[in-house]
Amino acid sequence: MEMQEIREEPEKTAEDEGATGPAPEVKAEEEAEPDHYAKLHNPSEDVYSESYYQPLKAAAAAAAERLLWLPSPPAGLGCQQCATGWLALGRSCFYLSTFRLNWAESQRNCSSRGGSLAVVGSHGVQSFLTEKGFLKYWIGLKNEGSTWTWVNNTVLQKSYWADRPQEGDCGILSSQQPADRNWIRASCHASSYFICQLHV
Predict the structure, then answer these.
(1) Which positions fall inside the C-type lectin domain (predicted)?
(2) What one-character-per-residue DSSP string does 58-89 give?
(3) Which of 41, 82, 182, 184 could form a disulfide with 88 if both were Cys (CB 3.0 to 4.6 A apart)?
């Protein structure tokens, strides 16, 4: 009788006791299951995704284009209230000209910009325009008969006439003088710089 070699089984541990069936085999990389996710990207899916996303891209582009063409009067509300070259004060924008015209031409020029010659309705506006200007400017004040009226057809209430306002039927704000007394009179046919006002 020949002796057979008895193989010893490795001792079972607590981890092995839960397994009842044969242990799963670990496959080598070559034998691993094929990657099904790789099949998801094929030309027919590209057609689907392009047909799905193209309208979205077009809609986004159209929305962006509309944002570029928002109508903006001289100002967009928010940080910048007035157009370039205009100065903001409250709900008004002011433009101090860099060229001279007579009073009527100045009013027409302001109208073409969407406004009128400036109406100084408060001490705040008077001080602001005096501080920002460096010259003599037409304002929207004219003598009609014996009454000084603004271009918006209101009668002058509070005035800032200089001690010697000179002669003439149209009003000028002289920013070279103190704000309390810097209005002078001039012939409406004389040429001067001017201040436009636009309400926003």
Answers:
(1) 89-197
(2) HHHHHHHHHHHT---SS--SSS--S-TT-EEE
(3) 82
- How far is 148 from 164, CA to CA, in rounded Å? 17
Q: What is the CATH number of domain 99-199?
A: 3.10.100.10
Residue with tokens 């903006």: 72
Contact by Cβ (8 Å): 117, 194: yes
List, in order, residues 6 or more apart from 125 with CB less than 8 Å away. 89, 92, 118
CA atoms of 171 and 150, how far apart (whole Å): 10
Measured over the CA atoms of residue 71, residue 77, residue 82 and residue 84, the dihedral's sign is negative
pLDDT (0 to 100) of residue 27:
56
Start-to-end Cα distance in the chain: 117
